[in-house]
Write a structure and sequence with these properties.
mainly alpha
Length: 53
């Protein structure tokens, strides 16, 4: 089990927040699901979603 899972990822984005928000949210959700497989219990998950547009 890990204490930290660090990633730096972002989907391709445009200037349209409405169309960009879904891929960013999906990527964040998928990263959280994968991190849960490797993080030891009680460790926090932190992610950043950029506001585009």
């Amino acid at each position: 089990m890990a204490d930290v899972v660090l990633g730096d990822m972002a989907p391709s984005v445009s200037d349209n927040f409405l169309s960009d928000s879904r891929p960013q949210s999906r990527l964040c959700h998928n990263a959280h699901e994968k991190a849960e497989l490797y993080l030891r219990p009680g460790v926090k998950f932190v992610a950043k979603v950029l506001h585009c547009g």
